[in-house]
Amino acid sequence: MVLVVAVLVIEDDLRIRSSLAERLAERGHDVETSDRAMAGVELALTGRFDVVVLDLGLPDIDGADALRMIRSVSTVPVVVATARDDESEVIRLLDAGADDYVFKPYSADHLEARIRAVLRRTAPASEDRIVVVGALMMDVDAHHATLAGESLDLTAKEFELLAYLAERAGKMVSKRELLAEVWRQPYGGADKTVDVHLSWLRRKLGETAADPRWIHTRRGVGVKLVDPDA
Ligand code: CA
After folding, report:
1. Handedness of CA 182, 184, 185, 189 (dihedral sign)
2. Are 38 and 13 in contact (CB under 8 A)?
């Protein structure tokens, strides 16, 4: 499962900026960059971004001032990146409205984990959850799914079932769990209910039980969704 995030990276160091943009884009995120604080603040205020990564040592304005400018008008989550391994400075920035911080040098993996943590804490309930597994994309809250860019015509239950599996892609899920979570039958129900919906889903995903691509079942264990092109 991939959470696609629009990230703004404000960083004047070309090497850090371009490698970070590249690593985040490789992971499917939408990345824009700015090498100046002022231009970065303007971009941050467009509302296009889920999160802003802000370097504190910028040539035109001090990063802490840039943070204050963003905070005075926007609640966009901000992760500050600082070379200053200084606890009092970090506390000052968190007080000034930073949502999290990373010390340089940091890896894209580490930053991505921080971004996920920040978004978990700050995401409003109405935020659209986008789940991507290979060519399958599901906008969970909008109840809309596409396969290779084509809309999938799913019933409400089919959608819920597919979303539940897509959010746990690669992991075996028992039919008992599906009955409890998707059909809200915590004390069990007919496995047949799940089987029937899985066969409908298979048809819509263009596969059969005899020749599975996305949906793999194991008797007595459960079912999992996988990216057939991975
Ligand atoms: Ca810098």
Report:
1. negative
2. no
Expressed in angstroms and rounded, the spacing between residue 58 Cα and the centre of ligand 1 is 5
In tens, the pLDDT along 57-103 reads 899 998 889 999 999 888 899 999 988 677 888 888 888 889 999 98
Q: Could you tell me the pTM of the whole model? A: 0.55
**Dist. CA 35 → ligand 1 center (Å):** 9
Distance 98 CA to ligand 1 centre (A): 17
What is the whole-number distance in angstroms between the Cα of residue 55 and the centre of ligand 1? 6
Please report how the helices 87-95 and 63-73 are oriented relative to each other, as an axis angle in degrees rounded to 10: 20
Q: Exposed, middle or buried by CB within 10 Å (0-12, 13-18, 19+), for 109?
A: exposed
Domain residue limits at 106:
6-122
Are 27 and 95 found together in one domain? Answer: yes
Residue 230 lies in a domain: no
Shared domain for 107 and 75, answered yes or no, is: yes
Number of domains in the chain: 2
pLDDT tens digit sequence for 140-159: 878 899 999 999 999 989 99
Q: Give the distance (Å) from ligand 1 centre to CA of residue 220.
A: 56
Looking up residue 200, the CATH number of its domain turns out to be: 1.10.10.10
